[in-house]
Amino acid sequence: SDVSEPAFSPESISDLAAPRLNASSGKPLGKQSLSIPLDEEAWKALVSKKLVAIPSGTFKMGSEKGRKFELPVHEVHISEFYMMKCLVTQREFEKICGSNPANFIGDAARPVESVSWFDAIAFCNRLSQQDGLELVYEIQDDIIETRFERNGYRLPTEAEWEYACRAGSASDFFWGDNEKEVDLYAWYDGNSEDAPHAVGTKRKNPFGLYDMTGNIWEWTNDWFNDDYYSESGGFDPTGPEFGEFRVLRGGCWFNGVSKLRSWCRLKRLPNLTDDVTGFRCVARFRK
Q1: At what angle are helices 90-97 and 117-130 packed, to 10 degrees?
Q2: 98 Cβ neighbours under 8 A, 6+ residues apart
Q3: What pLDDT score was predicted for residue 287?
Q4: Is the pLDDT of residue 3 over 60?
């Protein structure tokens, strides 16, 4: 697959933290929108236009069949959150960020790819700005902090992603353990014809999410750590505090079926871009 330069560098992302002007008043809005805070009902009415509700619940993360860094299996509780039912498309990315970095162009309904982790969080912050929500990613110089208590858009934690993908299942795939059913639910090396496809064209999972397996790998918010599963668990884990790589989930058009399993993990340098990696956003209301 092709490798290209990021659409945004960490330096340009820092511009998102700088004051911006309100078009109507000319007054700087600063790092955060000064809009009236939304109550839960108003917040849900807003984000549900773009995202679907994922109910709270407890699940077993990882697999006894997995590699060392997919073990041990551990119990995790996830609070209710909202998630995009589809991957961010090229059309959506260009509307928010003003450019389309994708390699596979020609159909704007395809997922955007060739985006770095930094590109993905820039999109999240800009979408939050557009909707008058709090910016989850606080950027000071070259330091990026994820403010989980804020109500804007962000990348899913790895635990949120696996919980949403499984959608109540404990099997290898959210539809069960039968690999022969993969063509109904995913674009992978057996049917993709060496390219990603328009989002939402395969069957959705029980939570109403499309392309959770196949089509494009998805950036998560978490740093990658080989031993993290030995320390993880409990309520709404947010991943290791530090790291070199970020976690990818979901598999892609280039992969075989084995990479599409709900528990499969991959690590990638956050500044790397290639045409097999994209993302979707989540949000959570904090009372």
Answers
A1: 70
A2: none
A3: 75
A4: no
CA 81 to chain centre: 13
Looking at 79-181, which runs of residues are DSSP E strands? 81-84, 137-140, 143-146
CA distance 134 to 10: 20
Residues 6+ apart with CB under 8 A from 2: 103, 114, 274, 275
Question: What predicted TM-score, i.e. pTM, was given to this entire model?
Answer: 0.89
Residue 5 pLDDT class (50, 70, 90 cuts): very low
State the Cα–Cα distance between residues 22 and 226, nearest whole angstrom. Answer: 45
Helix (H) or strand (E) holding 123: helix 117-130
Phi–psi pair at 40, nearest 5 degrees? -60, -40
Q: Which amino acid makes up residue 109?
A: A
Helices (H), 178-275: 182-185, 228-231
Token duo for residue 173: 């795939």
Q: Which of 27, 5, 71, 94 is nearest to 233 (CA)?
A: 71
**283: its two tokens:** 């949000």
Q: How many CB atoms lie within 10 A of CB 241?
A: 7
Q: What pLDDT is stored for residue 36 in this prediction?
A: 60
